[in-house]
Every structure is written in structure tokens, then in C-alpha cells.
Amino acid sequence: xxxxxxxxxxxxxxxxxxxxxxxxxxxxxxxxxxxxxxxxxxxxxxxxxxxxxxxxxxxxxxxxxxxxxxxxxxxxxxxxxxxxxxxxxxxxxxxxxxxxxxxxxxxxxxxxxxxxxxxxxxxxxxxxxxxxxxxxxxxxxxxxxxxxxxxxxxxxxxxxxxxxxxxxxxxxxxxxxxxxxxxxxxxxxxxxxxxxxxxxxxxxxxxxxxxxxxxxxxxxxxxxxxxxxxxxxxxxxxxxxxxxxxxxxxxxxxxxxxxxxxxxxxxxxxxxxxxxxx
Length: 278
Fold this sequence. Notes:
By secondary structure, the chain is an alpha+beta fold. Among the domains are: 2-84, 2-Layer Sandwich (TATA-Binding Protein), CATH 3.30.310; 118-227, Hypothetical protein, domain 2 (Endonuclease III, domain 1). The chain is built from 14 helices and 7 strands. The strands form 2 sheets. Strands 1-5-4-3-2 form a 5-stranded antiparallel beta sheet. A two-stranded antiparallel sheet has the order 6-7. The longest helix has 15 residues, at 133-147. It starts with a strand and ends with a helix.
């Protein structure tokens, strides 16, 4: 087993980070116990299980089987958890809005934690369309059990090639998704089978490309900019949790969010965290 300590740029709200991870954790792939988070993951193309012990100063990462390139592993974790971002400066900007000022005081140092794999982000987002977080975790767990590669006592989330080889009907029967959702998930797998589609794209290009995939609309596209690309300035105006937190309809929420530029994604994260995670 190989261990590394990774410092976070202060402040780091590790409790909120764990709460976000717990809300989306897929049984069989991810586990959370107190201040530790464990999951199957690929590092530099090699499958391993990472255990992260979080604190307000950062985290200790352990890899089993061991990873030889610890520098690459540390860089991956830093990017995954957004640890180098100056959240103090972001919080100062967001605090200018009275609605957000209270949230910033209570939960400083929130991070845009992305999915560690772009296809997993796209697939999990499709699975989670118009269902509860609990239902989404259940559907995803069924796919993991059926198609995920076993690593120690966990399984990796199925890769795009694996799901692309399965028909939409098989995916529907396996996961319990609606037929429309299964078709979208299969199409996403086919599109991602040759590698990441969004990596390296400017946000506006990624945002423009995604709705061209059947079953992916504005909410999914905006959500993926936040959770897959960690774009700092994306708001999701038709997100129900955000709109309820603001007490505004879609158009008014979009207008309100303009004042939070260039950190609208972090403002959205504050709303989500207050309403759904903590």
C-alpha cells in the first residue's frame, strides 16, 4: 500500500466534501465511514482502490494495490477535489450577495469536486435525471454489480466500451431504468467509447455539443460543466434544488446568478450544500 499526504489550500470544508460524496456514492464502488472515503479508481490507467482520510488541512491518500507514480496520483487527487483553488477569494466575492453571505459564513471553503472519470460523470448524470439521489444510487449500483471490474472488495464503475457493447434493452433490464433513459445511457456510452468527449474543450463548446446527444438537455449539459469539467462560472437555472433555495423561477434565478460571476458554480454549490448535503 502506498500513502501520500496532500495539503489543501485553506479553507477546506472537508465535512461538506464528505457530505457531497456520500449523497452520490454508488454502493459497490464507493464507501464512506466517518472522515474516510474509499472507492475503486483508475490512476494513470491502472486500477486500484484509494482510501482518503479527510481533514480541514487536506487528506491522506492510500492506494491498494500500490501506485508507483505517487506524483501523478497526488496531482489526480488535487484536481479531483479542487484543492488548489483560492476559495477564500471566491467566498469574499460571493459574500457580497446577502443571500449567499449567510451560507459562506457557515460553510467556507467549498470545493467543486468532480467525478474522477468523465464517462462516469456523464453516465451518473443521465442515470440521475428526474429521480431522487437514492434511486440514482440504486440504478448505478446495479450496473456496477453486473458490469464493473472487481478490484479488491469493490468494483469499478463500468467503462464506456463495456456499456456500449450492451444494448439499451439489456441496460434497461439490468438497471431498472426507463426505456428512454436506457437509450440515452447507451448512446452516451457509444459516444464516449473512444475516450473523453469534453476534456480540453472550452465550456461554451462543451455546452453546445452536449444537447446534440438524444436525451441530454440544458440541465444535464450545465450540470456536467460543473461536475465533470469543474467550470467555475456555470449556473443551472432549471435545477429544482437551486430554484427552491432561492425561491425563484427559472428566468429569475438565471438573472440573479449573473451577480455571482465569475464564480456561479461555487454559488450553486453553496445552495446545494445548504439545501441537500449538510
